[in-house]
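Folding follows sequence. Below is one example:
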Amino acid sequence: MYRLFFDLIFKRMDPEKAHHLAFAWIRAAARVPVLRTFVAAVLAPRHKALRTEALGLRMHGPFGLAAGFDKNASAIDGMTMLGFDHVEIGTVTAQPQPGNPKKRLFRLVADRALVNRMGFNNDGSEAVAARLAARKAALGEKHSRTTVGVNIGKTKIVPEAEAVADYVTSTERLAAHADYLVVNVSSPNTPGLRNLQATEALRPLLAAVREAADRTVTSRRVPLLVKIAPDLADEDVDAVADLAVELGLDGIIATNTTIARDGLGLTTPKRTVEAIGAGGLSGAPLKARSLEVLSRLYARVGDRITLVGVGGIETADDAWERILAGATLVQGYSAFIYEGPFWCRKLHRGLAERLAASPYATLADAVGAETRKKAAA
């Protein structure tokens, strides 16, 4: 039914307008308690076998919403209603910014992919912090039922030399409201941002964010992760892995979108791809490289830090493959556009079936099993 609706309605709309329309519907449904309870009962069944512990947090399962969909923390409960086990909001910058000029979001339907050059359009860390605080006050203890990650990035107009202070400002405002915090240095849509992935720039940045989080939140330790690009050379992936272990980071998210266009032009006409121009490619074409980066990271760090697999995850098979490669948590975004509101339900059911048919007693036992097997061969 959703695919018919997508073909008749959403496919004919500008992608960003369609996103805002769907977003409005989700938020509206979540505001009505009876409707929210009914939708959650239908779309978010919980499988006890999938219960997950990661980053010192307990979650209903391993599958979460990647950053980019809910930039301003305005639909956390709506996305939980649809079945996501955790919701990562953002990317949030210290200063509010409109993002890049429109048109800036494009569908490649034949490739089940998206290209975006949104440019961190968001309300800014002060406004988002106030929204998260208001939600917590309204829900009381119930707010803890949803794991909320907060993804922070650099304000576009801030020079690269002042990036650390910019991230620290966001950390000071948002850390208290985050179940975990993510430093995004891998979006291709903010000039100079990816330069921060180099270890000589990344080390002081992560150290400063860690210190700011610890100074701001004294009642607990806020887990800190870094999100990296799939376009890093293998030796740079290794360097980030080593740095994460050295600094005592809690996790790495692999991966963000890619600037590569490998494989496109076979189903989507090459002239269409060229006409879209710059931006980060997400969805199915990213699957192979994201898996490679994840496997390489796990081979390097093992169980010392938590790995989050994202990029091209569409099915339960994709999610299961990432878990076997080393991911404790997995995330999706682009496939949600094509699969619709029943996506989480299908993925959860499929994961539970694959776990039941496997030799592993728990999901934790399955994490990294395939990568370890290859290393031992």
In short: The CA atoms of residues 291 and 322 lie 7 Å apart. The chain is about 45% helix and 15% strand. The longest helix spans residues 199-216. The first strand starts at residue 52 and ends at 54.
